[in-house]
Structure formats: C-alpha cells, structure tokens
Amino acid sequence: MTLWKSKEIIKLAENDFERAWLDTASLIQEPSHVEDRYIGEYGKSNFLYETLYKLREAYLKLGFDEFVNPIFIEEKEVKRQFGLEALAVLDRCFYLAGLPRPDVGLSQKKLNLLEKHGIQADRNELQELLHRYKKGEVGGDDLIKELAETLKIDDSLATMVFSEIFPEFKELKPRPTNLTLRSHMTSGWFLTLSSMYGRKKLPIKLFSIDRCFRREQSEDTTHLRSHFSASCVVMAEDVSVEDGKFVARELLRNFGFEKFKFRPDEKRSKYYTPDTQTEVFAYSQKAGWVEIATFGVYSPIALSRYKIEVPVMNLGLGVERLAMVLSGADDIREMVFPQFYKRWHLDDREIAEMIYFKLTPCTEEGIAMAEAIESVAIEEAERETPAEITAFSGTLLGRKIEVKLVEEEEGKKLLGPAYKNKIFVKECNILGSADSPEHAFSTGISYLSACSLAIAARAEKLGETEETEKKLRFGMVKGLGDINLKLDEVARRYITTYEKKIDVRGPLFLTAVIKLK
Q1: 278 and 300 fall within a common domain
Q2: Three-state DSSP class for residue 19
Q3: Of the candidates 137, 172, 207, which is a domain's last residue?
Q4: In this predicted structure, what is the pLDDT of residue 1?
Q5: How far apart are CA 472 and CA 467, in angstroms?
Q6: Between β-strands 422-426 and 429-433, what pairing exists: parallel, antiparallel or unpaired?
Q7: Are 451 and 474 spatial neighbours (Cβ–Cβ below 8 Å)?
C-alpha cells in the first residue's frame, strides 16, 4: 500500500520545502490498534549478532572482563604502537574531518536583506549568537532554533534566512584532523592497558567486541570497510604463546570446533614480539581447515612506550569471518547486509500470509452465519436447478435475516464445479485447485469460504441501510478479487519481478440473496 506519491512530494519540497514539510504532516495517520504490531510475534535475528553474543558469553565464561576501547585514535598513538610500520597502517585508516565554524560578518547588506523580509534584527544580539556558534557554545543542531528566537521569527523563516542571507555556511568544506577511526583493536588496547597498569592486580584479562574500520579500496565477497573484532588481552608476568593457544581452543569450542592447528603468521607485525604472532586454524565439517583467529605477545618496545613493563598476550578474530564459516555463507556482504546484497526471496508460506480477505464479518453472529452458508452450500452444491435453498435463517445485530442460495436457470447445478477449489502457493505461484498440488503450501482458504465471508459481511452492512434485500453474484472466477481476496503489494511485486503467476480461476456461479425481515 502506498500513502503518497514520492515524485509529487519531492516537487512540492523543491518549490517550497517549509510549506511541503508542514503540509505533509497530514499524511501520517493515527493507528487504531498499535499493540497489534508488537504483541504475539518474535523478530528474526541477524546471524552475525547471534555469533557476536555467543562470543561474548564465551569470553565471560573464561573469566574475561568486558571493556569498551576508544574508537577515535590520534595519529601519534598509531605511530607509538606500530613504530616503523605506522605509515603502512595509517594508509588503511580513515581520518576524521569536520566542517570549520566560519567567521560570519554581519554587514549592512545582510541587515538590509533581513529588513526586506520584514525582520527587524538587533545587530548586537545577532552578532553575539554568531560569535557563540563560532566558539562552539551553540551547536549546529540548535543554530536554526537559536536564530529564530534571536530574530523573533518562526523556524520556517529562520531556515530561509540561514540559507539565503548567510551563504558562508553553504561554502564550507571539511578539514581533516589527526584523529583516525580505529583500524585494529590493538590501538585501543594499548591506551586501556596503560591506564590500568599498576592500578589493578595481575593477571588482567579483558575483552572487547566492537567495530574496527579499514580503508579498503572496495568492498567485495570477503572484505568490508567496517567489521567486528572480538579481541582479548591477558597481562601477566609469565604470559606466553601458550596462553594464546589455550584461549583460542576454549573460545572456539563453544562453536563446535574440536580440531586446531597453530601456524606462525608470516606478516610479523612489529607490535608483536618476534616469533609469537600465530594464526589459528580450526577444522569445520563444511569448509575443512579454516583460519579463524590470530594471537601474539605484544613487543616490549611497544609496551614500554606506554610504560607497561610486563608481557601482554593479545588474541583477535573477525566476527564476520567466524559467522561465515559457521553459516556456510560465501559472500560477507550478503550475510551482513542482506537488505542490499541478498537476492530478494519470499517463500511459499510468506506469500500465503500476504493473501487477505477483502470483506469479513465484524461480529461473532456474522462469522457463524458465514460458516452456516459455507456448510449448506457444500451440502447442496450438486442439487439440480432451478433451486432455492435457505442457507441461514436467524438474527443478526438484533434483526431477523435470511440468506438463500439460488439458481433460476434450468438443467444446471446450484454451484459451479469451482466451489471445490482452494488456494495454494507452490514455488511462489498462487494457484486455485480442487486437488492439492504436490509440495504446495495450503492457505486453508477455499473459494467458497472466502465468498461466504463476503456474504456475511454484506449482511451486516445491510442492516445499516434502508434496504431490505441484497443480491450477490459470484460468477466466472478470473482472479483473487472475484472471490473476496486481495494480495499484498509486496507479494504482487515479487510475483511480477520473478515472473511467477497467479492462476485463480474457474466457474463458481454462486448467487446469494440476503433478506431482512
């Protein structure tokens, strides 16, 4: 369902954004039963986060304390940690930039433009506001509001003033800083450990599962610009490679791995002690031997730069990498961002759940009437015509009512043969059939049950009018709409996109006459 036309909204906004912004508020509707959206259904999780939470529990079970490491790392810290390798590491880092706060002069020309729009500005008050913004006392988010209050105008006019009279803001360009986004969890660990060394009893066991950022040239099946690192450190006087092996084994056993191999890492990063950097391989039934983690003991040189004088073992693994191994995924983008990369897929059950009744009775009496009509129709379907059968006689909403099934033409049956048809979904095709197609998902809806609900719903509405009789005819079925059914736009779009079909047809020839007495 669409509630507005995007092209029309965009055109209105381009002509007068403030007016469009105010007017489109009327398009937002008040729901009648908010709780129906949230109660009785459990959401689907992302496998990446399922893996992340399980890793978190595994670290906690091993006695590690959870910490949050800094994300914003100064360039000088990377140089302290990586030494001669720093430039190569920084090449993979994202540097942060920000818009400068401009010096905005308040010329007579600007004041004249304000007067042209009927705004009498106090020069000193306005200059003070701009000065406070320059010093950072007023944030960018609050500038329009503060401007409106200073000029004693509404927000809409303040937005226009900001755009037209102060062009300095439009001309701003970002300026880089010396802050980087953390590319390795190691960059945060050195800062955290230096603040704790000498203040906490050894051994110190910490872990953090958080994002790291790499300036990849492009994202592909195995690389993203942002990923989760599940990293830990152990600081102790006698910590060694054996700690790394033990933690790796115990951590990964929580995911069903039992066979492990440890191999020296050829990268030999300078922040690790020589011959300690180690790759961890685990055996997977799906993928065989796969590299999952890396560990090493930090170099005394890097540690000394942070005045740390005992060894530290560091182990880290990419959460996405582990999740791919566990799930059998072959494209990291598709696993992490299915909304962008995964082929759109609806299964038969999902499509079946998007088939709705157009009309349904609102009362228990109406539902009972629909059930009675369907039962009698099935029982009398083969009766020779002409025929007139009472399908329901009783009360509805306090009034006596009668529903008859009729067929005036001679030599026929009361109902056409399609009354036996039901709605199925098979391989995303919607089918109407008297027989159950092999491997098809049944919606549980028959042509007859859907039409019986429509008859009962119309009977309820008849009592609200001055009419006393209503005749309903369901003839040759050519689609869902002919039997009181509709399809959600999402399912219809899917069926159209993948060239599936809706084959719901057949001779129903059901005629019902509703009479109020």
Answers
A1: yes
A2: helix
A3: 172
A4: 61
A5: 14
A6: antiparallel
A7: yes
With a cut of 50, list the residues of the chain below it in pLDDT. Answer: none
Where does residue 131 rank: exposed (0-12), middle (13-18), buried (19+ CB within 10 A)?
middle
| Interacting residues of 172 by C-beta distance below 8 A, sequence separation 6+ | 99, 100, 102
Of 461, 463, 435, 446, the residue nearest 510 (C-alpha): 446
In a domain, 10, yes or no: no
Q: What's the pLDDT at 18?
A: 80
Same domain, 147 and 114: yes
Which residues are within 8 A (CB) of 188 and not within 5 positions of it... i.e. 6 or more apart?
Answer: 69, 70, 71, 73, 182, 208
Domain count, the chain: 3
Q: Report, in angstroms and rounded to the nearest whole number, the Rg of the chain calculated over CA atoms.
A: 35
- Whether residues 167 and 183 share a domain: the answer is no
Q: Over the stretch 25-55, which tens digit does the pLDDT of each residue have?
A: 999 988 878 888 888 878 889 999 999 999 9
Q: In the numeric block, which tokens belong to residue 347? A: 């299964």
The tokens 């100064």 sit on which residue? 74
Residue 239 lies in a domain: yes
CB-facing half-sphere around the CA of 293: CA atoms within 13 A: 28
354 in the same domain as 259: no
Which alpha helices (H) appear in 413-488, and where do they start and end?
447-462
47: which 2 tokens?
A: 């496998």
Residues 359, 243, single domain; the answer is no
115 and 80 in a common domain: no
For residue 253, tell me if it sits in a domain: yes
Residue count of the chain: 517
Residue 179 forms beta bridges with which residues? Answer: 74
3-state secondary structure 315-373: EEEEHHHHHHHHHCCCCHHHHHCHHHHCCCCCCHHHHHCCEEECCCCCCHHHHHHHHHH
246 and 119 within one domain? no
**What confidence score (pLDDT) does residue 148 get?**
83
Q: Using an 8 Å Cβ cutoff, are 446 and 422 in contact?
A: yes
- What is d(CA 253, CA 260) in angstroms, rounded to the nearest whole number? 10
Quick one: residue 13, left, alpha or beta (phi over 0 = left, psi -120 to 50 = alpha)? Answer: alpha
Residue 81 and residue 194 in one domain = yes
User: Which residue, of 126, 141, 172, is where some domain finishes?
Assistant: 172
Q: Flag whether 24 is in a domain.
A: no
Note down the domain range covering 138. 100-172
Can you tell me the distance from the alpha carbon of 161 to that of 232, in angstroms, rounded to the nearest whole number? 53
Query: Which among 250, 237, 256, 98 has a CA at the least distance from the CA of 174?
Result: 98
pLDDT of residue 364: 93
Q: 306 and 193 in contact (C-beta within 8 Å)?
A: yes
What CATH code is carried by the domain that includes residue 318? 3.30.930.10
